[in-house]
Amino acid sequence: MLKQGLELKQQQKLSPLQIQTIKLIELPIQELEQRIRKELEENPVLDEDSPKESEEGEAPREVSLSDYKEDDSIPSYRLRSDLYSSKDERPQYSTFSVKESFTQSLQDQLGYRNLTEHQYAVASFIIGSLDDDGYLRRSIDSIVDDLSFRANVETDEDEVLEMLKIVQEFDPAGVGARDLRECLLLQIRHCKRTPEVEHAVKILKNYFNEFTSKHFQKIMTRMNITEDELRAAMAKILKLNPSPGGQIDDSYSDQAQQIVPDFLLEYKDGELILSMPRFSIPELRVNRKYADILIDAANSSEREKKEAAAFVKKKLDSAKWFVEAIKQRHNTLSTTMQAIVDYQHEYFIDGDETRLKPMVLKDIAEKTGFDISTISRVVNSKYIETHFGIYSLKYFFSEGLENQEGEEVSTRELKKALQECVDNEDKHKPLTDDELVEKMTEKGYKVARRTIAKYRDQLGIPKARLRKEL
Questions:
Q1: What is the average pLDDT score of the chain?
Q2: How many CB atoms lie within 10 A of CB 379?
Q3: Chain centroid to CA 409
Q4: pTM reported for the whole predicted model
Q5: What is the pLDDT of residue 286?
Q6: What confidence tens digit (pLDDT) does each residue in 397-411 have?
Q7: Pick from 198, 217, 238: which residue ends a domain?
């Protein structure tokens, strides 16, 4: 009985406003704008702009949301919004990950193509079959079978391949590839046809295995090119994105998707100034027609008018919760981002990674008074534009380790130091992981060999043998 009571108490704390706020906090700015438009479309009570004057020249009667007062003559159960009925006791909080935005972007691009309904269904299914990094790793046969059994769409291999070619034309370049080689070829076809690009295409088409195995002498001999020509071609290939899908690290984010930052951080006169320039709370007003229903019902005892007013007020409650949730989202995001800026003040002055302190979600939760889950939702899929670049909020969080002086340093600083060791190594004799441990020790960092291997993988740095150059 005690457990039941606790569960009921927790459920009662989740008001409709809290549910709305939790959902809105997760949304990046583009999706918030779409959500506002959707609310305006779906809630007939609302108008975004003040209506124009009527033909007679009189201003129409309006009711602002802030003017709305409860009418005790209408039972509260009739005012309850269907959106928050008792059936939804355990609301499923939507998560708007990069993957979802990536898939939606492809679906949007598909909408601009002149396709039949049947072709659209096939192409849409292909998009839904892509994995997290944008590859199609399923066989064409299995897609044909799944379209038939799961989507009731009859097709064949030729049509699936034809629709796949269309998907492969979408942004980001390389999407829909079936392997790394195809992914790189899809991207390089957009490059200007210079000699080094022509060589790069030939390497990818004819000598991909030799390229990945670093058998450079074989490539030069078979293609009859010089070492400098090979280097120039390899430089083109290495600039391509091997992971064009949603699960992308920060270094590829500008190529992979359109990012609209939620925050802007400026450094003026020695002061960091944070703002949310794209954010504005819409001025929502009650549509004149529904305002008339409310006013008429207030002076009437007719049952039909009272029921009509109950419907209007139910929708009005929904609108009030929505607008209040937007305000709370704004306050939560700005408070959280300001706490991050304060915590990492030294770093945000010039973007020097060595000044980035170890910081976890708990640190910002304690600073703001919000739950860790709330901080996590704020950080998810949000970006900030600074005077030294655009960054995902996740970028500023990292665990810490101690240096030889016992001071805590962030993993970001350690990774930067490791990257510098690799950048400065003799590429004819690359450093092994054991040698990297020694180099890091010389720099003052206590790091185990397994940690070096882990960070090297996270940074996308191959093993020593594969880093060897001509």
A1: 76
A2: 21
A3: 28
A4: 0.47
A5: 61
A6: 876 565 565 555 667
A7: 238
The DSSP string of 200-239 is HHHHHHH-HHHHHTT-HHHHHHHHT--HHHHHHHHHHHHT
pLDDT by residue (tens digit) across 16-29? 777 878 888 888 88
CB 341 within 8 A of CB 272: yes
Number of independent structural domains in the chain: 2
Task: Determine, yes or no, domain membership for 256.
Answer: no
Residue 45 has what DSSP assignment?
A: T
Residue 111 domain-assigned? no
Tokens of 121: 């269904």
Peptide bond into 172 cis (omega under 30): yes
pLDDT in tens, 299-355: 666 777 777 777 777 777 777 788 888 888 999 999 999 999 999 999 899 888 777
Give the amino acid at 448: A
d(CA 25, CA 373): 11
Coil, strand or helix at 279 = coil
Q: How far apart are CA 12 and CA 10, in angstroms?
A: 6
Q: How many CB atoms lie within 10 A of CB 176?
A: 26
11 contacts 90 by C-beta, under 8 angstroms = yes
Residue-wise over 27-54: b if at least 16 C-beta within 10 A, else e? bbbbbbbebbeebbeebebbbeeeeeee
